[in-house]
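Side project, low priority. Logging it here so it doesn't get lost.
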Amino acid sequence: MTDEEQPQPGAAVWFDLTVPDAAQVRDFYASVVGWEPEPLDMGGYSDFIMKSPAGAGVAGVCHARGDNADLPAQWLTYVVVPSLEASLERCRAGGGEVVTEIKGLGGTQRYAVIRDPAGAYMALMQIGGDTPTES
């Protein structure tokens, strides 16, 4: 992917829904929206990539387990930022909370979930650039 093809800072690039029964909600959205579910092995259970009728992955429906156990049942939007660490620092300084540690998504994609001062959740994602390792 060239730099011109990569999502720019501020772009919403993915949406996840975390719920206790992902299979039930997967079927709901498959029926209501027309998405096609594709299982994603999570090591002992499957979450689901929801695909458009054309086959493009557009969202995830996830079980409230593992790293997602503490997330509320709401759609979580992933937004690209140029520097994840700088954005997390500004989140804390602005009265928000960093809910998860920084996590990798393969390659050079990293993200963390935040909660704003009003209590709403969002995931901040850095794509490419410097990717320091966590200690």
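Brief comment: The chain is about 15% helix and 40% strand.
Revisit when time allows.
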